[in-house]
Design goal:
about 70% helix; about 0% strand; globular
Length: about 425
């Protein structure tokens, strides 16, 4: 480790800090604007409730936005979806990342898609924005391919940090999910970049955690066996979730005109404006509603199915947006449903609601991404509570094990493979994997 702090690395670390600050500014601006667009979307929802003819204008705007996104993604296919497979492919040497015009187009394309209410998250685009920020700096200052990859990893980590205010998760995710080779130098570089991005994010948006959970009561150690069934359910539903994403991509690919591919997702969004607006967006508002209200188990099961289907359709459309937040919301609903089942049918104390929500989020994240360490640390950072690490690990590893047993591949590995196959069909053959 001592070699990582040798004088010769000083300039590299300064570049990492600069990338972290710049990525932090870009992603924090992205996050702030999405918050404002979410507030504006609710204003539109309430206005339409008072004047139903307003729904016609909503459908017109959504249709026009779908065409714009379809045309943009068709011309720049690296903008579609999450952005994490693109970064993975860049680190493995499959294709060359270009910061312009992809960075500004991903920024504004994500604002359009998520602002309109598609069930997508900000984290994947934030990771890509951080990585593309590193590419912009690398173009001027990187001295070698090795240094480029090191700074690309650091920028991606900074993007996740700014998206969630979670610097430890940013570092862990890059090495657990992006699978970049870890060295002492790359680890220090990622940490410095994440710290810089975290400081920027906290300075602008404040220091409050993303999820305002409190855990006044912890389940006793003697009840830890109850976490196993929750992990089994989350791991099983995680496999269904991943397969639904792939199926949706396959079905959307049958729409030959790329301008029309986003239309089903945007039209479904328009229907939900009138039918159930809480399903719109990543799901943060839905989570607050579930925490505050007492929904019956059948309603929660319907919400799980509806959110899963809506997310799959939105992601399959190719619109710029990730799956982190939607899958965390799905895990939260699963956790709440499980807690109500224990309360209603086994007379379990009704004082652990928030705790089971956090467990569900962690377990479902681990089952979908196959990144259980990141899942545990992410929830710890986002809820600002370190007291429930052991239960989180139990639930996360159970879900991870079940998803693996069912033969499910890590979602971002499969999405990258699909991107590469699409490029081959178009006659664009990727480079061989580096290293």
């Amino acid at each position: 480790m001592r070699k990582a702090f040798e004088t010769k690395h000083t300039l590299l670390y300064m570049k990492a800090v600069f990338i972290g600050l710049l990525a932090g500014l870009i992603v924090t601006a992205y996050r702030f604007l999405l918050l404002k667009l979410t507030e504006g979307r609710w204003f539109v929802v309430h206005a339409a409730e008072k004047q139903p003819l307003f729904y016609i204008a909503i459908f017109v705007v959504l249709t026009m936005t779908a065409f714009i996104i379809g045309a943009t993604v068709s011309k720049y296919p690296m903008l579609k979806g999450s952005g994490i497979p693109q970064i993975k492919g860049g680190l493995r040497g499959f294709f060359k990342l270009s910061w312009f015009p992809e960075l500004p187009l991903k920024f504004f394309g994500g604002l359009l898609a998520l602002g309109c209410g598609l069930s997508l998250g900000r984290e994947g685009p934030s990771i890509q924005l951080g990585g593309l920020t590193a590419c912009a700096v690398n173009k001027k200052f990187a001295k070698s391919q090795k240094e480029e990859d090191c700074l690309l990893t650091a920028g991606s980590a900074a993007g996740l940090t700014a998206a969630f205010g979670a610097p430890l998760s940013g570092v862990l995710f890059t090495f657990e999910e992006l699978r970049n080779r870890m060295t002492h130098t790359s680890l220090v570089t990622a940490i410095l970049s994440c710290l810089a991005a975290g400081i920027v994010s906290e300075a602008i948006l404040g220091q409050l955690p993303v999820f305002s959970f409190t855990f006044p009561n912890m389940i006793p150690v003697s009840d830890y066996f109850l976490l196993i069934p929750l992990g089994v359910v989350c791991g099983t539903v995680a496999v269904i979730f991943n397969q639904s994403l792939f199926l949706s991509q396959d079905l959307h690919a049958r729409i030959k005109n790329p301008l029309l591919r986003p239309l089903p997702a945007f039209w479904l969004t328009g229907i939900l404006f009138a039918g159930f607006p809480l399903l719109l967006g990543s799901g943060h508002d839905l989570l607050q509603e579930i925490k505050a209200e007492s929904y019956a188990v059948p309603i929660l099961l319907i919400l799980i199915a509806a959110k899963l289907l809506f997310t799959a359709i939105c992601y399959g459309s190719g619109s710029p947006g990730g799956i982190f937040l939607p899958l965390l919301m799905l895990g939260a609903i699963i956790g709440k449903t499980y807690e109500l089942l224990l309360v209603n049918y086994f007379d379990y104390p009704h004082i652990y609601g928030s705790f089971f929500i956090a467990l569900g989020m962690t377990a479902f994240f681990s089952g979908v991404t196959k990144a259980p360490i990141t899942g545990c640390v992410l929830i710890l950072e986002m809820t600002a509570s370190l007291s429930h690490l052991i239960p989180l690990i139990i639930a996360a590893l159970t879900s991870y094990g079940i998803a693996n047993y069912l033969g499910d591949s890590p979602v971002y590995d499969e999405l990258l493979e699909r991107m590469l196959n699409d490029r081959k069909k178009e006659g664009i053959y990727p480079k061989k994997e580096v290293g």
